[in-house]
Every structure is written in structure tokens, then in C-alpha cells.
# Entry
Amino acid sequence: MSTVVQFKRRQPKQTTRGRSFPKLVAIAMVVSFGVGVSAARFISDDAGVANTSTPSSHIIAFFGGRQQAAQQVYVRAATPGVTYKHCIGTVRVHCIVDGDTLWSNGVKIRVADIDTPEVNEPRCAAEKALGDRATVRLMELVNAGPFQMQAWPGRDEDKYGRKLRVLVRDGRSLGDILVSEGLARTWKGRRQPWC
# Structure
């Protein structure tokens, strides 16, 4: 025996989708504004980054053993609690990528006066080992006290969008220290093989 069942049409559900979308947009805007304000306070002059009042013509630094006048971009003061660590994850504020790249106040910086071995895509084990040593040493140097970041003469960014800066403490390039310790080479305008 078969049973006859009467077909009932489904009634369309009342969705709240159309009504809640403007609320979601408003919430997203408020959260974005709050994050922006927090980030601005974190990166502001109160967080240890200050514009220098020293005229750029009076700033002298040693690059590759030569004394040159350099334009000073900003100074990172020794701020209690700010320590550079190895970069992990996607949020990068104060961290070291490798021996010649770091993030400072959320800005990616390429140490312009040196070239260090690659750690992410090394061509041999010796390059990886030396690159790891250069990374650790750069971390030690930037955490040793206040340093200045000076613009690279003639160019502000590299082709990857990193700010080109020379890190200087007490008139000496931190890059030159890495070179003198055998962990880096003076930048000659292009990369040279390490293997």
C-alpha cells in the first residue's frame, strides 16, 4: 500500500542578513578607527621615535670607513621595554628578519651599507650558518642601546619597498661592526655570492 502525502511549499525564511550588514560595517569601521588610533599612539614620538632638531649638515657618520655627512631621518631612543627579537608571524613591530633587515616601529628597514648572507634561501650550508650568526649579532647590536637611523644618500627605498637606512651609534655604523667581525660585506651596489 502506498500513502499519499500532500506537498507543502516552503515558506521563505525571514533573513536578518539585509538588516545586519550595515551594523557589521559600522562595527568594522569603529574597530578600524580604534586600531588606527592605538597604532598612532604606539608609533608616535612618545614611543621613542623623535624628529631630530640637529641640522643634517652637522651629522657625521662613518660608512665603509669613510667619513660623510648624512641626512638623519629619525632617532630611536633607548625605550624601556622595547627589545628587538627574531621576527615570527605576520605582526612585525620591533624585530630582526636577518643580518641586514629589521622592522622598527612597524616599518621594514634594509641596513643599506652592508650585505649579509641569506638565511631564508641560502645557496649552501655555510651561507645559512653565517647568516644565522649575522642575524643574532645584529639583534645584539640594536639591543645594546640607542642608535640613529640615517637615510642612504640618493635613495629612500629599495625595489622591495624597504626603507634604506644606515644604523649608527656614537658615529659608527653598526653595519661596519658586522663587516669588521666577518659577518657582512660592505654594500657595493649588488649582491655577491657567499658560497
About this structure: The two ends are 85 Å apart (CA to CA).
